[in-house]
Amino acid sequence: MTVRVLLADDQPLIRAGLRMVVEGTPGVEIAGEAGTGAQAVRLVRELRPDVVVMDIRMPGMDGIEATQAITAESADTRVIMLTTFDDDANVYASLRAGASGFLVKDMALEDILTAVHVVAAGDALIAPSVTRRLIADFAGSARSAGAGPPPREPTGVTVREREVLTLVGGGLSNAEIAAELHISPGTAKAHVASLLAKLSARDRVQLVIAAYDAGLVSPRATNG
User: Fold this and answer.
1) If residue 3 lies in a helix (H) or strand (E), which one and from where to where?
2) Which of 26, 123, 161, 195 is the most exposed place for a label (fewest CB within 10 A)?
3) pTM to 2 decimals?
């Protein structure tokens, strides 16, 4: 199956670099390009891409607003945010907007391409240490500021699913969860799929947020 990608960035050179890598890769194609958030939202409606690689800072409607609009309208299109290390506050907001992951602009283009495949497959980018740090800081900042509801136990999940949710919150992959709980990778994947359905989560990033919101994971647990 071909993964169709929309590139949204106000810098033509960034789009050109991404396009060059994508166009030379079997199984991935460029569905379109946008230079603003508003244009990205419009093109998603018209083209229905599988993945949007979205810059955070764009004129007019920024990437966070565009991501919120896209994820509210389409359950099938996933968004990966392009960020820099000093964009933490904006990244926190994009978590709530429905982004499925984050990329740093100075990453190798091949790594960005790998990320596109990961997100298109329904997973999310929570393994890299930078993303773990961002999510941990997000949770800690929200708690200290008194933002959001107090921690509460997730309802409708089994004891085993609660254990899996805790490990997902710690940034563990399915294979790592399987090893930790002494279960097969297939069983771990099934538990994650059940949690996604029960908690109405789009992907693993939202499961991580759910784990923090439930008080299952301490922010300092993912500082690696």
Assistant:
1) strand 3-8
2) 26
3) 0.69
